Amino acid sequence: MTGPATTEVVTDNVRLEADKWRDLSDQMSAVYANPVGNDGLKLGVSAFFIGPTELISTALHSSAYNGFYAEVQALVKAAATEWLQLGEALDRMADAFDQTDQTAEADLEAVYSEPATNGVQGPPPTAQQGGQQ
C-alpha cells in the first residue's frame, strides 16, 4: 500500500541505473586509454605558428591549449573513477533496501503471528470445550 507517508523503491530499477553508470565509466576509461586521446592530441609550439609573429605569443597559445587539454584529460579520468563508484554505491543502496525489506517482513511476521493481548492475561484454557462432558 502506498500513500503520502510511504516510499516504494524498486530495487531492480536501482540496479539497472547502477549498470548504466558502470557502462558510462567503461566508456570514459576507453576515451582516457585511447593513445590518440591521451597524448596524441597535444600540440607543439609549431602548431600555433601563423606567420611572422613573436614566438612568445605562439608559445603562450601552445601552453594554454596543452594546459586545457591536460585538464580535460584529468576530468575524463576522474569521470571514469567516480561513475564506477556511483554504480557501486547504487548497488549497495539496492542491497540495503532489500535487506531492510526482508528484516521488516520478518518483524511483521513475528508481530502478527502472536495473539494480541494488550498485556492482559486471558482465562486459562479448559480441557473440556464445546459441551462435551
Main β sheet profile: none
Number of helical regions: 3
Distance between the termini: 49 Å
Rg calc: 33 Å
Q: Share of helix among residues?
A: 55-70%
How much of the polypeptide forms β-strand, as a percent range? Answer: under 5%
* Apparent shape: rod-shaped
Key attributes of the depicted protein:
133 residues; mainly alpha; 3 helices
Topology:
Elements: H1 11-33, H2 35-40, H3 55-113
How would you describe this structure to a colleague?
Helix 1 (11-33) packs antiparallel against helix 3 (55-113). This protein has 3 helices and no strands. The protein is 66% helix and 0% strand.
Brief characterization of the structure:
Helix content is 66%, strand content 0%.
